[in-house]
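DM from R.C. (forwarded with permission)

"hey, sorry to bug you on a friday — could you get me a structure for this? deadline for the figure draft is monday and I only need the backbone to look sensible"
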Amino acid sequence: MINPTIISKSTEKEPGYSNCGSLTLDQPILVWRPSSVEVDWYDEEGKHHRKSFNRKQEGFTIQHEIDHNLGILITDRQK
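My reply, with the result:
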């Protein structure tokens, strides 16, 4: 995904435990994220894509990585 942008988020949120590889954490921390997100992005060939992702489709990981692009760390999302 090149330049991914979250276009919309579900209002429903789900808890998840995460341990970011960019930080040294003693244990995973609790983070609440939207259950699904719709994402716009480009591929390596410049083709535009838009797709919805839920938790089972790695939606939480996509949200986490987009947070990194925006300078947001997992600890900023900690509840």
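R.C.: lifesaver. The chain has one helix and five strands.
me: no worries. The helical segments are 59-69.
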